[in-house]
Amino acid sequence: MADLLAHIWAKSPSAGAREGERLSAHTANVLARLASWRDRYPALPKHTASHETLWDSAAWACLLHDVGKVARGFQQMVHVGTRFEHRHEVLSLVAVGWLDLPEVQRELVAVGVATHHYDLPQIIERYPYGSDARTLLLQELSLEDHDALRKWLSGIGVPDVTRWGFSPLPGLRQISPEQALAEAMRLLASLREWLDQCDATNGHALAVRAMRGLVTLADHAGSAHEWHGQVPSLDSTAQFSRHLEQSRWAFFWPHQRACAAVNGNAILIAPTGSGKTEAALLWAARQRELGPGKPPIFYVLPYRASLNAMRARIAQKYGVPDGAVVLQHARATADLYTRLTSEKDYTPERALKAARHEQNLGRLMTAPVRVLTLTSSSGLSLACEGTKPF
With bands split at pLDDT 50, 70 and 90, how would you rate the model's confidence at 183? Predict the structure, then answer.
């Protein structure tokens, strides 16, 4: 099918390329990564007030998050490098305002679109109602691109979200760009006031924050062309056991077998050299086996000095691909660079490139195993080891 927005670039050309990444291609990449997040954590909506609609709302937000890049100034920026003075995600809210949806769900989609780069207060304060900034931004949408955008969203070029198991994009209302943007911004302003007053654990507040996180993470991974890593050896206790047997592992101690049978939380107190690492990973493999989804493993240690050795141990001994386990602490890049140059004979240039790549993987949250200290991340710990039980 023809792509009416084939002339719209979402990204500038990469080194050596003559053309940038098209809006349709980038949008499809982001949707594919969102589907990976759903597969990794399918139970996420149960923790919010949007049990039935969260994934579809996130998919529609991903579909619309960059359509504001049709702005003439933005296209000049990605083609020739001139500066664009406005926020493309705010112009994307025009498409959100067009959606024929109940206001509560349209609000969720608007949050995902508006906040995938900046915080909500910054967006609202920069484009208040009746401001010159809002008027100038709307002028960036030409009549030709306005018509092409509506036809694109109606099926002439837009990625088909049903391909990834999401519901089709709702129909579009016949309202002007000015009215559509005003409605979306009104919903966001009202939401901001409500969030300032409500409990952070409120179900709708959790849905709002989940929406921002999902769109942002999917966008970052899609832009980087990175996928969620796989770690088959930790997908079940049986697979982990088979891998250890292939490594000539002799036998499991009773406390390790007990950890492999636990459904839910566990605390293990054992001395040094008793196999706590294997016990923790057997427990983590059991939780991934039980599902739903394949959640990441956060391996938490009390001291940073232990992290580098643990990362190498997990990658080398337990069948975890090297790119599937990352360090997460302030000096992770420098430490990895030192190890690669001293232990693996990497050239400085190759070591720096590899260390920076791992640093970026850590930020993308795509790696299935993360090694960290309690002070280096606020993430949920699925496997812990230390001198005291947590």
Answer: very high
Domain count, the chain: 2
Cα 271 versus chain centre, distance? 38
User: Contact 47/207 with Cβ under 8 angstroms?
Assistant: no
pLDDT for residue 83: 94
Instruction: Give 22's DSSP letter.
Output: B
Please give the radius of gyration of the chain, using alpha carbons only, rounded to the nearest integer.
24
Beta bridge partners of 370: 298, 326
Classify residue 260 by its DSSP letter: H
Does residue 282 share a domain with residue 332? yes
Q: Is 108 contained in some domain?
A: yes
Find the CATH number of the domain harbouring 119.
Answer: 1.10.3210
Amino acid at 319: G
Q: What is the CATH number of the domain that holds 303?
A: 3.40.50
Cβ neighbors of 60 (< 8 A, separation 6 or more) are 99, 109, 161, 166, 169, 170
Nearest-10 crossing angle of helices 348-364, 332-343: 140
Higher pLDDT, 184 or 304: 184
Q: What is the mean pLDDT of residues 214-239?
A: 93
Kindly list the distances between the CA atom of residue 350 and the CA atoms of 14, 157, 198, in Å, as whole numbers in the listed order. Answer: 20, 40, 50
Segments forming the whole domain that contains residue 326: 232-384
**DSSP string for 197-227:** HS-TT-HHHHHHHHHHHHHHHHHHHHHHT--
pLDDT of residue 378: 39
Question: Do 34 and 160 lie in a common domain?
Answer: yes
The yes-or-no verdict on residue 373 having pLDDT over 90 is no
Q: What are the tokens at 245?
A: 């047997």
Query: How many whole angstroms separate alpha carbon 44 and alpha carbon 52?
Result: 11
